Amino acid sequence: MSSFEALEQLHHQALAELVDAATTEALKGWEDRYLGRKGQITQQARTVGQMPKEARPAFGRRVNEIKTLLEQAYETRLAEIRNAELQTQMTREAIDVTLPGRPMVPGHLHLTIQALRELYDIWAKMGFEVYEAPDVELEAYNFDLLNIPEYHPARDMWDTFWVKGTNDQQAGDRRLLRTHTSPGQIRVMRERYPEPIRVILPGKCYRYEQITVRAEHQFYQMEGLAVGRAITLTDLIGTVTQFSHLYYGADRQVRVRSSYFPFTEPSVEVDTQCILCGGEGCAVCKYTGWLEIAGAGMVHPVVLENGGYDPDVWSGFAFGFGVERPAMQKYGVEDIRLFYGNDLRFLRQF
Amino acid sequence: MKIPLSWLTDYVQVDDLPIEALRQRLDLAGLEVETIEVIGYPGAELPWDPKKVITAEVRAVRPHPNADRLVLAEVDYGGEAPEIVVTGAPSLYDRLGEANLHLKVAFAWEGAELYDGHVEGWRKSRLKQTRIRGEPSRAMVCSEKELGLSEAAEDILYLPPDTPVGLPLVEVLGDYVLDFDIKGPFGHLQSVYGIAREIAALYGRPLQADPLNAAERLGLEPAAAGDFVDLEIADPELCSRYTATMIRDIEVAPSPLWLQLRLRRAGLRPINVIVDVTNYVMWELGEPLHAFDYHEVQPRPGESQPAIIVRCAKAGEQMTTLDGEDRTFDDQMLLITDGEGPVGIAGVMGGLESEVGNATEAILLEAANFHFLNIRRTSQQLKLHTEASLRFGKQVDPALALPAAARAVELLQTVTNATIDPAIADLYPGKPEVQTIALDPALVDRILGVEIPHAEQIRLLEALEFKIDAEVMPWTVRVPSYRLDVRRPIDLVEEIGRIYGYDRFPGTLIEEPIPPLRRNRALEDEDRLRDMLVGLGLDEVITYSLIDPVDEERLHPEPDQRLTLPGEPVALQNTLSPERSQMRRTLLPGALRTAWANLRYLSRIATFELGRIHYKVAEPDAATAETGVEEPRRLSILLTGPRTPLWWREAAAEPLLDYFDLKGIVDALLQRLNLTEPVAWAAGNHPSFHPGRCAAVSVAGQVLGVLGELHPLVREAFDLPKQPVLLLDWDLEVLFEAAADAEAAKQVGSLSPYAPVHEDLALVVDEAMPAVSVERVIREAGKPLVNEVVLFDVYRGAQVGSGKKSLAFSLSYQAPNRSLSDRDVTKLRQRIIRTVERELGAQLRGG
């Protein structure tokens, strides 16, 4: 057999074996066998030197050709095998993608804080900033300075927790747990005079009353106060209407009724069309079509004066919103005790 | 306060107004109607069919052929022939055999729906044609119960003799009862006439009758004193007026139906004609009256006239009130006394001894006026609230006393048909001046923002019986005596706006520019912290600020290790329960109780609370000068239960949350707040915590607080299960201040483009050496090239010897401006090792 014939036979044998190599390991063996440093094709190339001079170019050329062909065939085969192996591997790696993920435990903001933030955001758009006042208050701030003197019938509107040990102090000097956020009105006025004021006063309030699904001894309130040189009742109406449009939706009408609070005059009650029935009448709005959303009014001259603002020059409005109540209406919460009873099954729903 | 519409119609026309429209108009004007009870009309509990329930007249009563206790009544209902009705009414049985009767009754045809008068409770049934003991029956004469008017079922209802026959009963007895919830201390709205006045003003309608001029109608002439009573007001400040009317020869009998019905609809129980008339006048005019038995009012010693002396009680003085209770008075309580002692608490309740009874022949009727604050105080101190004290407490017009007394006389005359010869004594030492207010009509626009023409303003005020002199500016407005709530121009502005109608007001926005704005750092800090903690997987709770003081004790179970809580507690004078009797000085009880309550339903609890604590300070500073109470903000975190929720793959090697879960949260939090470096850690000592598992944390020399595992005895005291409970208790004022400082000092570091060199360093140190100290020394020694020091292994065992531990750190070195050479790294490493050896006595492990 001539060297050419032997070379060709080797070529064919190599191609045949390449087809049989089914794994990357087998392929590696094939490469060593034929194309490696001691591989048969490599060795064929080395025999060129021993050949007669005239045969050398043709044989050398052919060896190189075959080497290139086999290298190409090897690359192709390698790609095939790798792909097949990858496919097998990925098939093996398939998972049930519906299995539960590694548990991350999300935290939750308390519903009250979420409700307050919503209110802060809306009022901030209208230029009202948050002002905070203490929970344990002087009687004077909670009542007297708000035009509610001792034994005045208006005090019946608030059942009060009194602080022990201050009872024998002079009226006004006794301590109590604030029954509303209104004492902050006096505090902010005394602090800010003679600036105009636009603030909201959020905070915990306390009432000495029996705890039921509708009434808690601790709850949040959010009061607002605007004092300026030309503030009117129609400004109050426009402002709370704007609030209602942002909070409850622009399609809800707002109405204002006369009411009574000792620290405002005129005093009004603000209603919005029921969020549930839209005014048709339902259990939430007690079939009136309206929900009370705020008590409000023009700051009483006595209160302005107690805050240091001359009522002949200044005027202002104040309003008070519940914090829990709107959330209860929105989410159908029937028991206010869920808020500060902190049943996490409840709080985690928000 | 319940007011029947039928009563209002005595004074103002309202029956032409749709009831809902009326209600809305009243609501709008601040006269809130809480509920409307419908009687007889559609919408009532029992509507009376206008065709089937009608007025009729019993003309004759004949015997029933087959029954002893039943009779046959011949009833004219306006039809062609009388209807024969079988009835067992006792009062008709008494008229058996009589003819030519004219007894007006309520008559129901078959098909009418009525209440069953023969069963307990309220069961509706439809009247059917039937036979009663053989006699056909297809109609009936009704009892009050059958019509739903009262529980009286024994006898039938008789209508007034002048009632026309054949009218729908609803036209005669149908009604709407408006239950008002009048907010505010408005005595003038606590009456039928007061509401009628408002309606007249709101609708621009005239008042049709004047119940206040009965004295003129009767020609009564009051005298300052009379020979029938010796009257004295010892304290005119508290009793501005006292009228006493003597009425003789009264027969104490039940009131007529119409009066009884009105009282019942108002929610009052009819008793007898005297009590009923005093109640009626109180409801109608708002003036509480009291009737004494004239013969029970004693003269002063040695005198013969009965005496009434209005004076404050002597401290400790006693009397039994009408309700049978023995009352003891203090020296600020105003009493009505006679020659011998107290006969009534002024404006609150009468005494039992002088009560009007069936044997009463003559009464002394009191119509007086007392100071509202005094009445309220007495009523509150005695915890005795009556219709009288409620009205006096809201201020009653003293001008009302005499007209009310006269009105009572007039009514008694009407309803008893007796000839009364009254005598009135009127002592009026506190007659108020007529009030006038100077009103600049421009104020209306300035406050309301609506320009209401002057003529319209005048019209609105006049509709409310104000008298205006508009000749000169400002106007002079005369206030009606009963408007005790109107004293300032602003009060008039409200009246004008209210009657004008707020529904006619447009909405505007404040024209002035927004005032100077301030950032609210406190709130920003809180909200940022909340978001971080929620991001770290914690649920926020807001617990009660009022706690059980015993919980403070529960926090330090070992008596010798007292818990140091700040200041003195703010305890309550009046409490709902011991569990809510003191303001919290620590957030821990709230956290523990929340965990306890939730562990009933959940296994894993991870909560935080950001809230204020409250305590009295011994020496108030500028901030607490007024209340003497400090209210700093604190943070609590609580973890307990499984580390991760149940999962299908790996079960954690240590399944329960432990100290390092809490520490991990804290480390992450401090990192976010740029406080990792400034914060100093040390072993903590807090009686509520496990003594070996408590860290004390401080920053810039200020105590931030503690964190650690709850002391097992505290855990038991709060009834928590036997598993680690991790707690944190921090002072947020300190945290926020430090975070603000760190934020202010923060400058961004350069980012090196060169790859860091990593290497591990295991150091053997004494067991007691805190890991954080080793880390700090490494960082110091490695400055500025060390940029990460991570402890990745703690090893104890034979290889390092007893009393020692090996801490393995992974370090990375990096320079901002070059790749580090092997020489750099070796030098750095040597420096670190030398320093830890020198400063901490540490040894390089295997070195």
Task: Produce the secondary structure layout.
The complex is a heterodimer of chains A (350) and B (847).
Chain A: H1 3-20, H2 24-34, H3 40-47, H4 56-92, H5 111-125, E1 129-130, E2 136-138, H6 139-142, E3 175-177, H7 183-192, E4 197-206, E5 218-228, H8 233-248, E6 254-261, E7 264-273, E8 290-299, H9 301-306, E9 315-322, H10 324-331, H11 337-341, H12 344-347
Parallel strand pairs in A: 1-4
Antiparallel strand pairs in A: 2-3, 4-5, 5-9, 6-7, 7-8, 8-9
Helix pairs in contact in A: 1-4, 3-4
Chain B: E1 2-4, H1 5-8, H2 19-28, E2 32-39, E3 53-63, E4 71-76, E5 83-87, H3 90-93, E6 103-109, E7 113-115, E8 124-126, E9 130-132, E10 135-137, E11 139-141, H4 144-147, H5 169-173, E12 175-181, H6 192-203, H7 214-218, E13 230-233, E14 239-247, H8 257-265, H9 273-285, E15 289-293, E16 307-312, E17 318-320, E18 326-328, E19 334-337, E20 342-345, E21 349-350, E22 363-370, H10 372-382, H11 387-392, H12 401-416, E23 423-427, E24 436-439, H13 442-448, H14 454-463, E25 467-469, E26 475-478, H15 489-500, H16 521-535, E27 539-540, E28 546-547, H17 549-554, E29 568-569, E30 582-583, H18 588-598, E31 605-612, E32 615-616, E33 629-630, E34 633-640, H19 659-672, E35 679-683, E36 689-699, E37 702-710, H20 712-717, E38 725-731, H21 732-745, E39 757-766, H22 771-782, E40 786-795, E41 804-813, H23 822-840, E42 843-844
Parallel strand pairs in B: 13-16, 27-31
Antiparallel strand pairs in B: 1-12, 2-12, 3-4, 3-6, 4-5, 6-11, 7-8, 9-10, 14-22, 14-23, 15-22, 16-19, 17-18, 19-20, 20-21, 24-26, 25-26, 28-30, 29-32, 31-34, 32-33, 34-38, 35-36, 36-37, 37-38, 39-41, 39-42, 40-41
Helix pairs in contact in B: 8-9, 9-12, 13-15, 22-23
